[in-house]
Write a structure and sequence with these properties.
This protein is α+β, with helices and mostly antiparallel strands and about 475 residues long. The protein is built from eleven helices and 25 strands. The two termini are about 40 Å apart.
Length: about 475
């Protein structure tokens, strides 16, 4: 039985539910890509599907719009896969369990993927409706946006004729994005050899219960990140117990997610075990006091039995490096009040057999500041004897002072809703920047439905705002003669 049956517009929610039945985590988008290509074949529409799982579907203009310029409708296929600790679902092979109360939609024990499944569903609904007046449509579904715009980088844009792009990958109804940050991810490594334990007492330390969130949309909300907090716990413990050794650490999974949990294993001399436990009990209170916005923050520990650990010297070297890493908001925009200009997300850390590995995700709407943050991280890592590799370097999207699309969509929104739309710049990385960079003269804007808790198990989307977004896109198409 369809969970979303009865929600309107029916086509949109039907497609969203169909899309939610197939796995589509980043790096695993073949099923979703094939689904969209199959819909195109069923509709008799021209379609191109590439090796990166991108899909482009073309639909000719409706009667009376044959002379209009094409418009590109765009969204991404992949989602961030997050699940609760007790969730047994394999998100690499299974779809989602949708839930709705008629006002909101969410998924049971997992992220929802409304970012950006709602866009795909709306575009498919438009492609299947032959009653809508519209210019030629070029529907572009990209893969693996969440892991560095991978699909958009691989996309051949040479057969796109549209010079107007409506991207549906934003998170607030009535808010229209006209600029976004560029970004780059830094994969860092610090070589360190493991050595056998020498009878020490070992503990596993768990820091969890944090809200987490999107490293673009939520980096300025004052939320804690488990990775730098765990490093602080370990460094502070090392100050109390200099012979502490690091056995393991693992926190984070995705570049663009503020880590909600981190685990570490350490070894200390037996005579220091009680001192460590007293310290952890006390420091847990310190963190709760500092992070009142994180009511579920928890620092716990239990006995562990690892077989080896870094040396005392390499433990100190690793923790000194990690503690000194920048994290969070680095600069605010002077042009757009309240906009984060530059930030860094300490997104991932783990200890492997050959040493420490961690990732820093940098965002900035100022290219020179993005480069400066790369310098800062590289200088810190290399001075400790480590190495840095750059990946997923994508351009920012600069604000255009003149935009016919911006005026059109603001006018349409005003007429439909009776409210004024709000024009903003985003600290999130949007694919618009890549398309604007590749397609000369492209006029672009991004909008979307009301989303909450994106990239987390708390993700949910407003039913009403999806309907409003669909109506708005249809009205923009109608006015695009």
């Amino acid at each position: 039985m369809a969970i979303l049956s009865g929600l309107k517009p029916e086509r949109v929610f039907s497609y969203f539910e169909e899309l939610s039945r197939v796995p589509r985590g980043s790096g695993n988008t073949a099923s979703a890509s094939n689904l969209c290509a199959a819909y195109a074949r069923q509709l008799g529409l021209r379609c191109r599907q590439d090796a990166a799982n991108n899909v482009i579907i073309w639909k000719d203009a409706s009667p009376g719009y044959e002379g209009a310029a094409p418009i590109i409708l765009q969204g991404h296929l992949d989602m961030v896969c997050a699940k609760t600790e007790d969730c047994t679902k394999d998100m690499a092979t299974q779809g989602l369990d949708l839930v709705t109360d008629g006002e909101w939609i969410w998924a049971d024990k997992t992220s929802l993927g409304a970012d950006n499944g709602v866009a795909i569903a709306i575009i498919l609904a438009i492609l299947t409706d032959d009653t809508l007046p519209h210019p030629p449509i070029e529907a572009v579904f990209t893969a693996d946006e969440e892991i560095g715009l991978v699909g958009a980088f691989a996309l051949d844009c040479s057969d796109l004729r549209g010079r107007t792009l409506l991207n549906l990958d934003f998170e607030d109804e009535g808010v229209f994005t006209v600029s976004s940050a560029g970004g780059v991810s830094l994969d860092c490594a610090l070589a360190a050899a493991r050595e056998p334990l020498d009878g020490e007492c070992c503990y596993e330390i768990v820091l969890d219960g944090l809200i987490g969130g999107h490293s673009g949309a939520d980096i300025d909300k004052g939320r804690a990140s488990a990775n730098p907090l765990m490093v602080r716990v370990l460094y502070s413990a090392m100050e109390q117990i200099p012979l502490l050794r690091l056995c393991d650490i693992h926190g984070g999974q995705f570049d663009n997610v503020i880590s909600p949990s981190c685990r570490a294993k350490i070894a200390v001399p037996h005579e220091q075990a009680q001192a460590l436990e007293q310290f952890l009990a006390s420091f847990g209170g310190v963190l709760k006091n500092e992070w009142a916005c994180e009511p579920e923050l928890s620092l716990s520990w239990n006995a562990a039995a690892p077989s080896d650990a870094l040396s005392v010297r390499d433990t100190s070297r690793a923790l000194h490096l990690l503690l000194g890493l920048p994290h969070g908001v680095q600069a605010m925009s002077m042009e757009f009040p309240g906009l984060v200009q530059t930030s860094l997300n300490f997104s991932f850390v783990c200890l492997e057999p050959d040493g420490l590995r961690f990732t820093c995700s940098i965002r900035s709407c100022i290219a020179s500041q993005k480069a400066m943050m790369v310098q800062r991280v590289r200088a810190a890592v290399e001075s400790a004897g480590g190495s840095v590799a750059e990946r997923s370097d994508y351009p920012g999207w600069q604000y255009a002072k003149s935009s016919a699309l911006r005026e059109l969509i603001l006018s349409a929104y005003r007429d439909i809703s009776g409210r004024e739309g709000r024009v903003v710049a985003s600290h999130g990385g949007l694919e618009c920047g890549l398309f604007v960079d590749r397609i000369p003269g492209l006029d672009a804007i991004s909008t979307g439905p009301d989303l909450q808790g994106v990239h987390s198990v708390h993700e949910r989307v407003s039913v009403r705002s999806i309907a409003h977004l669909y109506d708005l896109v249809c009205e923009v198409l109608k006015r695009s003669r």
